[in-house]
Amino acid sequence: MTALTRPDRSQQPPPPHHRHRRRLVLTGSITGAVIVALDGTVLTVAQPSLQHDLHASFAQVQWTSTGYLIAVAGLLVFAGRLGDRYGHQRVFSVGILGFGAASAGIGLASGIGWVIALRIAQGVFGALLQPATLGMLRATYPPDALGMPLALRTSAIGLSAAAGPLIGGALTAHLGWRAVFFLNVVPATVIGVLALLVRIPAPSTSTPATRPPLDLPGAALLTVALVSLVHTLVGIPESGWTATTGLGLAVAAAAGALFVRHERRAAAPLVPPGVLGSAAVASALALLLAASAAMSGALFVGTYFLQDVLGLDPFQSGLRVLPLAAMMVLSAPASAVLQRRHGPRRTTAAAMALLALGILLLALAALSLPGRSWTTPTLGGGFLLLGAGFGTVMVTATAVIVRHAPAADAGVAGGLQQTAMNTGPALGVATATMLLTLTAHTAAAMGTTLLTLAALPALATLLTTQLPVGPNSPSPDRRR
Fold it and tell me: What pTM was computed for the model?
């Protein structure tokens, strides 16, 4: 009788000190993600003013973004492993404090050279920060309770993406471009100091004896591969396909092949077999890569269509795209509920279908004669579905990655997730640029490019068969 009446501890709410700890971790994770997201969006608005004030060339200003992106992409996985070894909270503290200090330095910089150098440093600290925001959540929340924290984090990122241009424009217009970088300093410092002072106990499995060793050769090979790939992809929209482009891709492929060969032979590989060896984790990463590439490529083409074909100014174009950001914010918490009811497989499959349908609507608007009465509603519906699909994929695929990767490798899993989210947009924009270069910047060519991009999420939907069926079911590879 006692066994029947004893409460199930797994169903009981956590004690007050656990709830307080979770709130602190969630606040830090969201703040860190928002600071990084806001930094990227507000910088875009401030770049023209920065260029004029510092008498910089267009290429130099572009490197304020390119240098940051390359530093982040090349170091995310290694930074995640540092969190697995030394503690995600400690790495998070270093990352967010360093990010804030670099932001302050850029605000005080006297020349474009200092801005570029500090942006690269900011990228290094951003690489430390981003996987740690996911690693802390994985270490603090039980696997079946990760959905809503990840959804809140995604909603905050979407809100930052929407508010960034408005905030950046207002600050730049009234206080100058330097105010854009000072924006991050106070919240980064406050959260970083709190993360240092408030000690959150590490999981019981994290002991000096079980800490994974650092695979420095593997980290070096992966960094070379990712830096070469991202640098090449980012340069395609401006320089096109040249011999340098081919060389960059060849270096990336060679370094990637050497990395795979090294990982198979290493005693303690940088990316353990338990991470990418899981069909659920590997498929979720591929889905994130495909979704972010399709969304960014479609947004890139859509922006040109709005401005070059419909003749809208940047502000009017931004208003047309607002449904995308709004649906990212709204779909994230909704996707957490859908995932609990219908499972990751069906939720993600439906989200990828919405993403493909949204791009198809944009293609329809471009292929039709611009100016028809239904062009504007079609564009609005396309951006709306684009945001709903992408926001849902972000939450569901990230939840699968964080939950199904071993807890000891949560940092590496977070680094891989962030790598997919950083590499996908560069891949999507490069693909769109290549397709437009082969044709022309006409409405028909843009529509054809969008049709091609729509095929990416449609085909990637097949990968959802490798995701868990139910919210608490094991991944397909673990049942075998």
Answer: 0.83
- Contact residues for 273 (Cβ-Cβ < 8 A; gap 6+): none
Residue whose C-alpha is closest to residue 295's, from 359, 363, 388: 359
Tell me how far apart the alpha carbons of residues 225 and 304 are, in angstroms, rounded to a whole number. Answer: 31
Q: How many Å apart are CA 339 and CA 206, to the nearest integer?
A: 30
pLDDT tens for each residue of 138-190: 888 887 788 888 888 888 888 887 777 778 778 888 888 898 889 889 999 99
Backbone angles phi, psi at 398, to 5 degrees: -65, -40
Task: Supply 459's token pair.
Answer: 């085909």
Length of the chain as a residue count: 480
Q: How far apart are CA 478 and CA 480, in angstroms?
A: 5
In whole angstroms, what is the distance from residue 70 CA to residue 225 CA? 11
Question: Cβ–Cβ contacts within 10 Å for residue 246, how many?
Answer: 11
| Close Cβ partners of 410 (under 8 Å, ≥ 6 residues apart) | 80, 83, 84, 88, 134, 135, 138, 139, 402
Instruction: Quote the DSSP letter at residue 52.
Output: H
Quickly count helices (H) and strands (E) in the chain.
Answer: 17, 0
HEC states along 12-36?
A: CCCCHHHHHHHHHHHHHHHHHHHHH
Using CA atoms, how far residue 352 sits from 282, 289, 329, 358, in Å, is 16, 12, 17, 10
Question: What is the dihedral angle through the alpha carbons of 284, 285, 289, 292, rounded to the nearest 10 degrees?
Answer: 60
Q: Cα dihedral angle (378, 384, 387, 389), rounded to 10 degrees?
A: -80
Query: Dmax of the chain from CA atoms?
Result: 81
Neighbours of 265 (CB within 10 A): 7
Secondary structure percentages of the chain, helix, strand, coil, to 5: 85, 0, 15
User: What does the pLDDT average to over 311-340?
Assistant: 83
Q: Which of 79-88, 107-116, 380-389, 467-476 has the lowest mean pLDDT?
A: 467-476
**pLDDT tens column, 14-58:** 555 567 778 888 888 898 888 888 887 777 778 778 888 898 887
